[in-house]
Amino acid sequence: MAFYLKAKKLNIETGDAPKVLLNEQEALNFGIHAGDRIGLSWHKRKRIFATVNLAEKEVKPGEIGLFEEIWSKHPLKKDEIIEVAIVERPESINAIDKKLKGGVLSYKEIHSIIADIVSRRLGPVELSYFVASSFARPYTPQELYHLTKSIAETGDQLRFPDNKIVVDKHSVGGLAGNRTTMIVVPIVAAFGLYIPKTSSRAITSPAGTADTMEVLAPVGFSMKKIKQMVMKNKVCMIWGGGLNIAPADDLIIKVTKPLSLEPFDKMVVSIMAKKVAMGIKYLVIDMPIGPTSKIPNMTRAKEIEKKFVYLGKRFGIKVHVEKIPAKEPIGRGVGPALETRDVLRVLQQKRNRPKDLENKALVLSGKLLEISGQVARGKGKAIAREILVSGKAWKKMQVVIKEQGGNSNIDSDSVALGGEYYRVLSDRSGKITAVNNKAIDEIARTLGAPSEKLAGIYLHKRVGQTVKRGSKLFTFYANRRERIALAKKAIEKINIFTIS
Hints:
alpha/beta; Pyrimidine Nucleoside Phosphorylase, Chain A, domain 2; Barwin-like endoglucanases
């Protein structure tokens, strides 16, 4: 059933999925309730879907109020007549309901969910239930394959000539610092492999690779430009969220981010769908494991590893998972600018570079060179080290920075930090026996990271070191003094270091 209403522009941005406003009495006449989904079409325009809100006075009977999310993307003529159709319950809703009740979904059912996410037929409420459905019963291997395939195929895909060796490295996250990607990528590219690195922004941490790379250069580019950069230089380091690569995944992330929620199955699918879309053939997964990391123990790590390897085989991607115990952050800085400084210190081989970050990056680079078949087993790390120490990796990074519009002559010591800072001193003498990664993340975000690039924490001490009363433990950086005050309040209740 369809009916017709006159459009009224509402100069309000909801910041969410498309919504409309109907007069309460009008809606009652048509049997429409708040939260219902309706289809809208006008002037031969492809139908779009929106969620209904109700009001008594803002819109009159005979009108339909369109929020800015709709009319800014779909221009309207004055007094445009909108055809409104009540949407029947889509197949995707039935599929989500089935999964919530513990059922196993077919490819058709899974594809219906992903297609409706991409078309915006499903709103944030339905998306939240979809994310939650994997908690009721984890996906079967076949469901994981179907989900990955659907997410990859409903967006743009990048393909390279068959004779190109296309590789990637990806961290599952959950460990403060750990900005190895920005070291691994130039090492591998300098060796001669193709590595089109797309990264996400931070979801539950103070910085993602895209946030950190953005300190050095822009990270938003078109698919056409990305392929040009990679074919020319073998490498790029860009933000994947600005592209139409696995668009369903980016919409799901918008739902999970406010909840700090990331189910492991969703994480595996998210990573693998984007690798499939980018044409990756060899992949190293960095999996930090620790009680205050995303992956809490080796048992869970092995379960997740099996899923990565399984999906790799189904899509023709050779996957190696590097499972690494994580007692503390990798590197000294936490937050975009501070992590960038660590990365540059390693690439530029400064004396004060964080050796733990350097070593881990060499391990991951070596594994990637080995699984690609270009280096003998056990020889990868040594070759990666030669590329780093010789300066070849830094030269390749300079190419990336310049190509993406940044200053390729930047020095690690010139990376700006927050204008406000506060040093936290030890209130006792003893030995540092543990570091709480989650506490570091929480306080770094309190300081403003990742949205405020110059904010974060610099760690002066490591696990196993002895400290004296009054010695420096860590330094807070922020753009505003108010942020420092909030972080000082936080450490009254949250311990970063355990000293005994």
